[in-house]
Task: inverse folding
């Protein structure tokens, strides 16, 4: 390795120090989903990022989705996935599969991977200790819930005991149905608020917020809450980005210092965002 590369590497590590000091002891909520869960290389990078943050004293809580795995399991049992306004229509049979896949396979695979790489992860489901409580969002979506209450005690206990809590987004029903499917972005935002988190990171399959959706060079690195309505009006925030931005807005309004829509397709985007001067997504503050 040349002197230049050694120096460059030292520079990177030195640059990380003030950020490590800034975030040490603080809580970060990472919403993990999309491509970063499917691609082996990206998955590996996310896992090692989370462990590194944990080892330098940052309290990391992970909230995960599992859309592709649910679709795959439904296909195996011969059931067609059906979406209404971008949300999976969840009938009783689908809800059973959602619960099995999210609280079971996806959650435990993630916990096992984190532990296998030297982390100390513990798997939680939104129904554990009444973590997420919900009522039906709208009959047209079936058993999709809207979170009415978050009791973060079990996550706080895990963090305080040196664990990385990994949370699946199935909620306890409070209005007759036993459980509900919850949008993972929303659940992560609500958990970040309940934990008084410093930062919410939403890993997505896009570069961030783009002024021109067809041009990745038009990334908007930071947005103030007051800019959001005009960005929606001008068509900069459209489609699936609207609910993501709304989650971030709600989190920041409710006390989270900032929320970042992060490109999960970039290896180690979490570390670049948290521990360097770069930043690789769109921050709402």
Result:
């Amino acid at each position: 390795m040349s002197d230049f590369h050694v120096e460059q590497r030292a520079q990177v590590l030195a640059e990380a120090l003030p950020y490590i000091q800034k975030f040490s002891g603080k809580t970060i909520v990472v919403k993990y989903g999309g491509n970063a869960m499917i691609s082996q290389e990206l998955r590996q990078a996310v896992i090692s990022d989370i462990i590194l943050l944990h080892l330098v004293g940052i309290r990391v809580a992970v909230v995960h989705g599992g859309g592709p795995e649910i679709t795959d399991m439904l296909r195996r049992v011969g059931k067609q996935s059906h979406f209404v306004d971008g949300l999976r229509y969840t009938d009783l049979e689908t809800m059973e599969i959602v619960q099995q896949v999210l609280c079971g396979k996806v959650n435990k695979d993630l916990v096992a991977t984190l532990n296998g790489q030297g982390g100390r992860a513990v798997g939680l489901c939104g129904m554990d200790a009444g973590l997420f409580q919900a009522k039906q969002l709208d009959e047209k979506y079936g058993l999709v819930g809207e979170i009415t209450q978050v009791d973060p005690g079990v996550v706080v206990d895990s963090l305080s005991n040196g664990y990385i809590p990994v949370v699946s987004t199935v909620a306890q029903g409070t209005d007759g149905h036993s459980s509900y499917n919850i949008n993972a972005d929303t659940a992560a935002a609500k958990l970040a608020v309940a934990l008084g988190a410093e930062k919410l990171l939403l890993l997505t399959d896009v570069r961030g917020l783009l002024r021109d959706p067809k041009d990745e060079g038009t990334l908007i690195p930071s947005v103030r809450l007051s800019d959001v309505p005009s960005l929606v009006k001008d068509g900069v925030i459209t489609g699936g980005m609207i609910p993501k931005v709304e989650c971030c807005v709600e989190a920041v309004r409710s006390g989270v210092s900032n929320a970042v829509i992060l490109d999960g397709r970039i290896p180690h985007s979490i570390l670049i965002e948290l521990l360097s001067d770069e930043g690789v997504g769109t921050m709402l503050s």
